[in-house]
Write the structure tokens for this entry.
Amino acid sequence: MSALAVEVAFKRWIVPGFEQQTGIRTDIIWDPTTVLMRRVRDGERADVILAIDHAMDELEKESVIRRDTRIPIARAMVGLGVRHGAPKPDISTLEALKDVLTGARSVAYSLGGASGIYFQDLIKRLGIADEVNARAVTIPAGFTATKIISGEAEFAVQQVSELMSVDGVDIVGPFPDEIQTFTDFSAAIFTDARHPDAASAFLDALGSGAAATAYEKGGLTSFVPAPTAN
């Protein structure tokens, strides 16, 4: 089970490398952390889970995951995406971002993911919720940038790493520091994992130097140490 933030890093580099080196096949359930937690609460299990830290804290306290296996993975930040080749507006300041959001033909965001929940609160605090939502395109979960590709939205808001998961989308940039929110992710093995040895091998891969490089390439700030030069 994994949150969506690491999908680019996983699919492009980490999982192919792991499967090639070990011969172990992976089957990953992709969902926002809120949905993953709902599935776990309903009794669903896997071998490994990667999710937002506060959710992992809950699972650790309840002994759903093994505390001794938990490792920090990476940090994600929220940003704005636009169709590939389209002009990239300035969003380096709060006022510039507000102008872009209120002047956009439409903005896509998720109702279920951490970035979407943050964005809903943000536009309320900035006093532009009515203006933005009048033309917003919302999805319950998944990748908001798909609405750019479909033509339904001019811009998409989500964690930068998630925006990168959709081909044909460029990153305008992260939100300004003064309103930025950072989301930290960690991974661990389920207490009742059915394949503990394979799970341990996969967790080793997630904490490797090669994985650290993949997280950075995938739009994240890696908590895993970078590989050392020989």
Summary: The first helix runs from residue 7 to 22. The radius of gyration is 18 Å.
